[in-house]
């Protein structure tokens, strides 16, 4: 069984709440020390909690989600290596980081003989993709690429003027504004082009988004 989990985001530590909290608020407050980011304590706590919730002995692939600017690279990569050596994690990967950050972490692990990342997950869809550096770096160094959000949070799976509002739509519109996707004239032109294709072919927009 393949299990992947991500760690980095801060969450409310109360038993009844698992809401993700704003990074800036948590990083600046002593109340959230070791409840997020990528220091050793947070990494081990996140993995142990995931193992308990999933009811398994190990995680096949653990991915860090975003870069931790408050923790030295060495203090990120060594505990990840220790998690692999402890048999709690089989492989490690990363997502949502810049190429230079990913390269720094890989080079740090290689220099110290620690476990290196085997996967990289970045935005890859018709509206948002990074092909100039990350893709080439991963291809040249043997790192697997995992697409994140091929339908781009659903924007490519429905017309720009979709008349079907829902709770999910409201959430995605809010996140879209935060992430600056699906809102520009260029984005709308691409989505409209996808709609033209599906009308000609009789396909679904989600099919073209994943093609």
Can you tell me about this structure?
The protein has 211 residues and is of the alpha/beta class. It starts with a strand and ends with a helix. Helix 3 (73-85) crosses helix 4. It has a five-stranded parallel beta sheet with strand order 1-2-3-4-5, with helices on one face. It has helices spanning 23-27, 40-54, 73-85, 99-112, 134-141, 167-179, 185-201, 205-210; strands at residues 4-7, 59-65, 89-95, 119-123, 144-148. The radius of gyration is 19 Å and the shape is elongated. It has two domains: 1-148, Alpha-Beta Barrel (TIM Barrel), CATH 3.20.20.100; 150-211, no CATH class.
The CATH topology of the largest domain corresponds to TIM Barrel
By CATH reckoning, the class of the largest domain would read Alpha Beta
- Count of structural domains: 2
Mean pLDDT: 82
Low-confidence segments, ≥5 residues, pLDDT <50? 14-22
Proportion of strand residues: 5-15%
Looking at the structure, what is the overall shape? elongated
- N-to-C span: 26 Å
The largest sheet, given as strand count, sense and whether it forms a barrel, is: 5 strands, parallel
- CA-based gyration radius: 19 Å
Number of strands: 5
Structural class: alpha/beta
CATH superfamily of the largest domain, by name, is NADP-dependent oxidoreductase domain
Q: Helical proportion?
A: 40-55%
Strand order of the largest sheet: 1-2-3-4-5
Q: Please report the number of helical segments.
A: 8
């Amino acid at each position: 069984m393949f299990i992947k989990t991500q760690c980095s985001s801060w969450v409310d530590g109360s038993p009844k709440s698992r809401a993700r909290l704003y990074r800036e608020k948590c990083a600046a407050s002593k109340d959230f020390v070791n409840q997020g980011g990528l220091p050793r304590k947070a990494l081990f706590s996140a993995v142990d909690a995931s193992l308990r919730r999933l009811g398994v002995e190990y995680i096949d692939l653990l991915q860090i989600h975003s870069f931790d600017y408050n923790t030295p690279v060495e203090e990120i990569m060594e505990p990840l290596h220790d998690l692999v050596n402890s048999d709690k994690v089989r492989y490690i990967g990363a997502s949502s980081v810049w190429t230079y950050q990913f390269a720094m972490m890989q080079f740090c692990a290689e220099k110290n003989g620690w476990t290196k990342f085997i996967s990289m997950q970045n935005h890859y869809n018709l509206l948002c993709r990074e092909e100039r550096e990350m893709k080439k770096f991963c291809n040249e160094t043997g790192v697997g690429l995992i697409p994140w959000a091929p339908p781009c949070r659903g924007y490519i799976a429905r017309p720009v003027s979709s008349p079907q509002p829902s709770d999910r739509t409201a959430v995605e519109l809010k996140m879209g504004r935060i992430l600056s996707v699906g809102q520009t004239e260029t984005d709308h032109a691409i989505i409209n082009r996808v709609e033209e294709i599906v009308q000609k072919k009789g396909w679904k927009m989600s099919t073209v988004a994943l093609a």
